Fold this sequence. Notes:
The structure holds 2 protein chains of 2 kinds.
Chain A: H1 2-14, H2 17-35, H3 41-52, H4 57-82, H5 91-102, H6 106-140, H7 144-161, H8 166-180, E1 183-184, E2 191-192, H9 206-222, H10 243-265, H11 270-285, H12 298-313, H13 315-321, H14 327-338, H15 346-350, H16 352-383, H17 388-407, H18 410-428, H19 433-456, H20 463-466, H21 468-485, H22 487-498
Antiparallel strand pairs in A: 1-2
Helix pairs in contact in A: 1-16, 2-4, 2-16, 3-4, 3-9, 3-14, 3-17, 4-5, 4-6, 4-12, 4-14, 4-16, 5-6, 5-12, 6-10, 6-12, 6-13, 6-16, 7-8, 7-19, 7-21, 8-19, 9-17, 9-18, 9-19, 10-11, 10-12, 11-12, 14-19, 17-18
Chain B: H1 8-29, H2 43-65, H3 82-98, H4 104-116, H5 124-145
Helix pairs in contact in B: 1-2, 3-4, 4-5
Amino acid sequence: MEIFDHLALGFSVAFTFQNLFYCFVGALLGTLIGVLPGLGPVPTIAMLLPITFGLPPVSALIMLAGIYYGAQYGGSTTAILINLPGESSSVVTAIDGYQMARKGRAGAALATAAIGSFFAGSVATFLLAVFAPPLADLALKFGPPEYFALMVLGLVASVALASGSVIKALAMVVFGILLGLSGQDVYTGTPRFTFDMLELADGIEFVALAMGVFGIGEIVRNLEDEHSRTVMVKKVQGLLLSKDDIKRIIGPILRGTFLGSFLGILPGGGAILSSFAAYSVEKKISRRPQEFGKGAIEAVAAPESANNAGAQTSFIPMLTLGIPSNPVMALMIGALIIQGIVPGPNVVNEQPNLFWGIIASMWIGNFMLVVLNLPLIGIWVRLLTVPYHILFPLIVGFCCIGVYSVNNNAIDVYAMALFGLIGYVLLKLHCEPAPLLLGFIIGPMLEEYLRRAMLISRGDPTVFFTRPISATMLGLAALALVVVLLPSVRKKREEAFQE
Amino acid sequence: MTRFMKNPRNVATGLLLIATAALFAWQSLDLPMGQAIRMGPGYFPIILAGLLAFLGLIVLATGVALPSEHGDGAIHFRQWPWRALFLVTVAIVLFGVGIRPLGLGPSMGLAVFISALASRKFSLVTGLVSALIMVAFSWAVFIKGLGLPLPMLGPWLGGY
């Protein structure tokens, strides 16, 4: 079996001392920021990108991946203990998890979340190992028109599956692409949108955009209303599950894993959508739907499994196609590019160490999270009491030095300040910043494939519709748009996100 | 006002999108267009700017015609955390201005301290302590650890 050879290679890479160390650091940092409300994985990974420059690509990616799934994990801890989801993907967990904690079953809820996450993470990692290589092989056969269509489909799908207004999200994608095109044109070297500033010749720094919109903008929003948090549960007891509990969570964990694995692959899906979907499914099929919202253990097990599964499988399009399905994956692609690796289907074949090393490290990282976190829960609880007004100036400081160190250029610092303002205004106007970041990353690739495709077809735009794969993907994209814009579906979709 | 527009938030969004599209279109006009077969640097941006303006128009139209589905649709400028918005921005810009002449130490300290002022729960002691912690931390990680070519004290303060 080829896959076992590959996994063996992956584990041999991941089990070196250095990579184990970075995996551990990533998972730990991820849990930390997951626990701290108001600090998400996107600004954290953006802040840490400069630190990873000096590392080998495998170690850098292993650590960044660890932050992502660690954050899913840490987010659930705060959701359960203080009804404050550290991550948006733990919003659903907070509903019943907190109720369980109030009934004195915090330990059981945390254990359920841990077991569900670990199981789902393992399954999803395995799926990644099985499905990514064939997908990459398929993608290698793609020409420029197919790639262009695929990216359009990816962007549209991420818009369709995101919450909020579809039109506004589309506008954010276009805005992001335009920002992404700034700097020198690849073909002619003509500077674009640089306002005659030499410093902008290389384009807008991605880290500045990500930190500004997701880091600084969020900080200002959090300062709108400051209120103190109180940790209700001082001591967590009873981490062991009863037989009855175990019986009740097996089904939800399996369903959540399956659902999350599937939704994670879709662009725009990932952890958030997965957890919402898993909750609704469990509520629909449960024999005790009246218990949901009052501390049903199923309602913790399913979304926690789903969000972790979704977090893992969202690596599939990133690693095989070079297309990010959510902002974290966009940052991962940024990290790959900085490391001099061209993201895309070639990564699997040309960088087997990197590809399989990351996959193996995910499993190891998930294992570390279970082993580490349950005993360390006391420390995490104490961390929750760090007030935000002490935390956020440190984040601002870290963002400043982080963005400066990318190019040693003050213009990036100013850009971050500007994008912080833009990010806050966008939040106030109910425009989601995530599509903006995706557009920014995909923009340059999109233009390049469009140009190449038109060159091949001698300027005939019908090439996108005469080639079957590209036509199918564009058709799907159009269908997705029409469907979400239909009034009846729109209403249902909003209801789903309301829940 | 509300008689003419049912959802001021969307009206503002639409107008801002159109203005952004106009800015990008204006900037792209100077760029060579090329033709479809060999697109110039201005080709794709112009298409995108058009698309953005079109989407902005839709948002604008919905803002005029349809009431908001989330809340009253008002923007509530008065409730914006203007102080935080201003202080955090100033802190970051000052960091950028000061990093070369003043060095990492003073600019980091200033940035952290000024942004700490943005909170209503600010206290002098925690502000100073946070600033000091961050200065020490960034020295350890970025100058010692990562070897960033930055002095703690810049030329203006007797550094190099």
